[in-house]
Structure formats: structure tokens, C-alpha cells
Amino acid sequence: MLVLRDRRLRPDLHQRIRRRRGRCREPHRSDGGPLPHCPPFPARLRSDPPRRGLAGRPVNRDAAGWVIGPRDAITDVPGIRVGHWTDRRRATGCTAILCETATAAAADVRGGAPGTRETDVLNPANVVRRCHAIVFAGGSAFGLAAANGVMRFLSERNIGFETTVGTVPIVSSAIIFDLGVGDPRAFPTDDDGYTAAARARGGQVAQGSVGAGTGASVAKILGTDGRWKGGIGTASVAGPRGIIVGALAVTNAVGNIVDPDSGALVAGPRADGRMIPLPEVLDRRAAGMETLVANPAENTTLVVVATNAALAHHELQRIAYQAHDGLARTIVPCHTLADGDVSFAVATGALAPEPGDALVAGAMTVRAVERAILNSVRLAKPLGGVPALTRS
Prior knowledge:
By secondary structure, this protein is an alpha+beta fold. It has 2 domains: about 1-45, no CATH class; about 65-380, L-amino peptidase D-ALA esterase/amidase (4-Layer Sandwich), CATH 3.60.70.12. The protein is built from 8 helices and 20 strands. It has helices at about 1-5, 10-20, 45, 145-155, 190-200, 280-285, 315-330, 355-380; strands spanning about 65-70, 80-85, 90-100, 105-110, 115, 135, 160-165, 165-170, 170-175, 215-220, 230, 230-240, 245-250, 255-260, 265, 270, 275, 300-305, 330, 340-345. A 6-stranded mixed β-sheet has the order 1-12-13-18-20-4, covered by helices on one side. Strands 2-3-6-9-5 form a 5-stranded mixed β-sheet. A hairpin with a 2-residue loop joins strand 16 and strand 17 (about 275). The longest helix is centred in the last third of the chain and has 22 residues, at about 355-380. It is globular.
């Protein structure tokens, strides 16, 4: 910076830099100083926040200053692939998240009405403590069958937990209740899960009313008449040392959706031609104007978090815990008896471990989950008579 501040030291360098940045296109005096009409070297170039990352690459930051991953998707974590199967006519679907290269996995069930499969196997106290895929599906408990198709897909490729007689794919799964949006007799099957796995790719991830989020809805604390369309969303955060944390969420919550940065209501129950925030809902209930009709076991938010950090199993379990902080900051209320909220976390271990990585990844997890949930609602489309924030 000394060279830049004192143009007498390197007048030729000063002139080249000024021209490259578009600050001055006129010739300079032979002593390196500017002509009278040439503005002085701008001090703001020294004081403005950097526009590039530490590695010199341009960065994109969200409203809170977090660096957004290249695709802003869970697939920014190398080795993570996502595929959807969608039935828009009957408003259901499933999503396969393939993580064959993951070195560890964890799960945390916080809701009062969960529907899950192969979550206990991920307990740090148990033997396997990893999975090869995670499946989110609609169809309530019927939808758990989609995991069978993903198992078959992986088994055909000899991907799984090694046993003395062959490989057994470990496929964890969780479901949402979407039977009240489309055809109540429709649910993802074994073959549909296989299709979702076969479609799994890295790169951009379809969001909104697709896959497991096809029949999702939110803001149902006053009943389904005033609900909004939910869906599936993803986001990623890039941190120091190349750490990436990506999240994918299926939002089918009974609660309202709020923006954690501003506290603004994003999606709340519709009444009197407007959205009602939760405090007003409770006031109206106390005045006898409204009745809370949150149907038990018919709401759920599902989240999977992935990172390329090398985390021990107990550290990854903590990441699964912290994912629920993202739920609590964007869904009000959450973790109720009427929700089946579940989080999963997987680590690929691609980065060499350093002390403090778990702390960094945990902080990034909360932000990635927040933004994934907001995307799941903001990008949803109207379906089955349920309106969406996006009208088309």
C-alpha cells in the first residue's frame, strides 16, 4: 500500500493502476503527478470494505454479512447430491440426498409427532454412526417406503455398510404429512424413491413445490383455511479455511414463518384479508374470537445439514442440535406437539481438521438453515387450492 499512497515511488505503477480501475485515463506528468484535471487518488479505495474474499475471489454476502456459497445450495459441499420425484397432480413427492462419501452422520428429533426411520443408528454411542443417503418424503408414514427404493438404488451399485456377506446401505428417512393438500390416498412408493435417487445430481437444486415439499404448507395454527404453501429450500454458507455448510429444508410447519434478521412476518395465518402475527393470534383466542386448531401429527419441518469439515461424531451431533436453532429463529412456534421436527447432519471430512472447526461449522449451520427455510416458503408455488407467496 506504500507504493499506492506515494505515487512518487512508482509513478509508472500508479498510472497503470489508475487506468485499470477507470479512475484516470489521461496522461500524467513526467514526475508521476496527475494533471490538474485528474482527481487525487481516492481515499475510499483504502477504507471501503473488501469486495473479494481472502483468496482474491469475488464473494456474495447475505443481509447479515455471511458469505453465500457458489450455488447457495447443499450441493456446494462436494460429494452431496440431491434428486426429486414430484407428483404435482396429487401434491406429493420425495427427495433423496445422497451422501455416500460422508464419514459421519447424526440426527436430532425435537418435534412431538415425528415419522422417522434409521435415526437411532446414527447415535454417537452406536456402531455405524453414518448413512449413505437421507430421504425426505410426503405421504405421512406411508412415505417411509420411498427409502426402500433408495436402498435398492445404492445396493445395485455396491454402496453401503460393509458386512461379512455384502454391503447394506444405511438410508435414514423422515416424512411430512401432506395428505390434506392433494390426494389423501397418494404417497411416494419404493419405485418413486428409486427415481429420486437416480435423478440425484450435484449443482443447482430445484426448490419450492417439488420433491418432498410438493404438498407442504405452513401457518396452520388457526386451521388449514388460512394456511400458506410451504415447500423445499436450500442454502449454503462459506466460511474460513474453505469450510462449507449447506442445508436443505422441507417446511410443513404449524407455526408462522418470520424473517430472523428483521422479525418481519413472512407467512402467517390469513384472516380479515391479511396475515395475523402470533401475538395477535393469541390475543384473538383470549378474546374468544379464534380457536387454535393445530391438528396433531400433521405438521413437520425436516432439515439436513452437510459440511466438508472433518468432525468427530459427538461434534456432528452438536451440529444436528444447532440446526434446530435455525428452526426456532424462523418458525414461531416450532417443536410443538403438533410438529414432527427432525434434523440430520452429515460430514464428508474433506478438510484437514483444525481446533475450533466444530464451533465455526455450528455458527454457519444456524444461518444456512434459516435461509433454507425462508427459501422453501418464498419459492413455493400455489397448489391444491393453497395460495403461495409467489403467485405463479
